[in-house]
Amino acid sequence: MNLKIKNALISVSNKENLVSLLKTLKKLNINIISSGGTYASIRKLGYHCTELSKYTGFKEMLDGRVKTLHPKIHAGILHDRQNKKHKSEMSKQNFPAIDLIVVNFYPFQKIVLSSKNPKQIIDNIDIGGPTMVRAAAKNFNNVTIITNKDDYGSLIEELENLKGKTSLKFRELMSSKAFGLTAYYDAMIANWFNKKLKIEFPERKTIFGRKLQKLRYGEVVKHRHFDFRGVIYDVDFEFNNSEEWYQSIPKEVRPRKDQPFYHLLAESNDVTYEAYVSEQNLLLDQSKEPVKHPLIEEIFSGKKGSSYHKISN
To answer: In CATH, what number is assigned to the domain containing residue 163?
Structure first.
C-alpha cells in the first residue's frame, strides 16, 4: 500500500545532505518537526520547521535527555492507521500522525575512540533516537523510517515517483535497515561496557560490523544527480583522489570521504569517459541497456542481466 506523507520528524546528529531532502519535503508540502541542533540547522538553511517542544507543549528536560520521549510523538508514530480504536484515541487526544522519521544517532563509536572520559561516553549513548527508530521500524506498514543519509536519494526518488507517497516495499526495506542499525548500535555499547568491566566472556555476545561496499564489480549504475551511467571496474574503499577534484564537486551533492568510491566506464549522450563516483551518489541502473564504452570488451567478457562479467585469467 502506498501511503501519503504529511508530517515528518527529523532529528539527526550528522546533518550532511539535508538540503536536497528539505527541498523535496517543501515541494510536497510536508510539515517538518524537529528539535535542538537539527531545528537550528533547518531554520538556518531557510526552511520552515516546528520546534518539537512547541509541537508537544512540553519543554525538554534533564539537559536534553528527555526530549522526544513524549506520548504525542510515539503515539503519532506507533498507531495503526487502519485500527478504528487507535484512530479514535488519537482523535480524542488531538494527536496527528507522524508519517516519516529521519534519524541518525549520536556518534558513540567516535566518542569511544576519542575520549577516555566515561561520563562523556555515557552522555553520548542516544536514547530518544533509537526509541523513535524502533517504533517507526515496527510500524513500517504506516511509517517510513530513514536512518542513513545515504538513503535520502532513494527516499527523494520514491516521493517524487509516487507524488508524496512511499510504497510498502520501500518502507519494509528501510525498516530492516533501521533494526540493523539499532542492533549494531546496542552491540557497540555492550562491547564498550564489557571492555570497561574486563568481561571477556559475557552472557551474550553480538559481533558488530559494517559492510564495506554495497555495489559490485561489473554492475551497471547511474548517478543520482547527473545524467550519466556506467560500469564499475574498480573500487577504493575510501576517497583516493585529489583535493582539487573533491572541491570541484558542487557543495550540495559533495559526498563524505569515508565511504567507497567507484571507478566507472561511463557514458552520457554518446560521449564516453572514465568517472570516479561515491557510493552515496550511485543507484543501480535497471534499464538493462548495454554501456557503449570502448574499453568494455577489454575488461569484461560479456553481460548478463544488469551486470558485466570479468574476463577470466
So the answer is: 3.40.50.1380
